[in-house]
Amino acid sequence: MKRNQWILGLFICIFSAFVFQSCSDDDDDAEEIATNATFANFESWTLIATETGPSDKLGAAHGGETTAVRKIYSKGDEARGNDGYPVGTVIVKHTDFADATDDVYHGMVKRGNDFDSSRGDWEYFILDASGAILSDADGALRGDSSFKACGGCHNSASGTDFIFTTN
């Protein structure tokens, strides 16, 4: 009888450990999937930088021309830690060309969950002035590192978690 009680006790301990492990928080599975609401009201967020004119880091991308003014916004007060920005970090860059009628809006979200682990799990977007994700013939203008060459250029900023503007 004592042997059966011992086996039952061992089974309960093992089962309990399994249940508690399954219920524990696991940030490795955290994921932020952006929607239009993710970028709404971005101009009210934290302005982390204003850059004017050409940039040796950007070239012509994101308004590297002499007339461009780039405002970079961050949703919340996320700061880059030793392991980079946390999952859920959202950044918008608004590029205003003084000599053109159309401004340009780009967004990035630290998506997580191995979305694009070779490039920090960032997802890239083209937005309209309200922050809505623009659509193309194939759906929404969003994607991984191959999207519109975003990841290829951002790869050169791997030392700062793929962000050119540091904060």
Q: Write down the secondary-structure element order.
A: HHEEEEEEEEH
How many alpha or pi helices? 3
Structural class: alpha+beta
Over the alpha carbons, how many angstroms does the gyration radius reach? 22 Å
Described by the principal axes of the CA atoms, the overall outline is globular
- The strands making up the biggest β-sheet line up spatially as 1-2-3-4-5-8
Rounded average pLDDT: 77
Oligomeric state of the chains present here: single chain
Helix content: 10-25%
Kindly estimate the percentage of residues that lie in beta strands according to DSSP: 15-25%
Count the E strands: 8
Number of structurally distinct domains: 1
Spans where pLDDT lies below 50 across 5 or more residues? 13-26
Please summarize the sheet with the most strands: 6 strands, antiparallel
- The CA-CA distance between the termini, in Å, is 66 Å
